[in-house]
Design brief:
two-stranded antiparallel sheet, 9% strand, alpha+beta
Length: 108
């Protein structure tokens, strides 16, 4: 499988981004996920879902569910999807809408 995947452009080399946490900004939620999540969801959509859940495990469940639904609509298959969510600092979810700047800049 690795040879076939490599010929299609798949790499086993992970992408890394270094980001300095700043508790004075709105650095509230950390989402680490495989490309199965990001294929059909923007950073802002992911943050909106995570922000409006009461616990990280519920955010994971909702994100995977939403991702699976989008995969089925777009491709009629579902890619493997790994998601880890952490609420940072003293973050407490609320029912208010997240600030527009809550998502990290887009990039792949």
């Amino acid at each position: 499988g690795d040879v076939v995947a490599h010929s299609a452009g798949v790499s086993s080399e992970p992408d890394f981004v270094e980001y300095e946490f700043n508790p004075d900004r709105e650095d509230l939620i950390l989402v680490m996920a495989s490309d199965g999540l990001w294929e059909f969801m923007s950073n802002q959509e992911v943050m909106d879902i995570a922000y409006n859940t009461t616990e990280p495990r519920f955010a994971v469940d909702r994100l995977i569910s939403e991702s699976n639904e989008r995969w089925m609509r777009e491709e009629q298959v579902i890619d493997d999807t790994t998601v880890c969510v952490a609420f940072l600092g003293n973050f407490q979810s609320s029912s208010i809408n997240p600030p527009a700047s809550s998502a990290a800049p887009e990039g792949k």
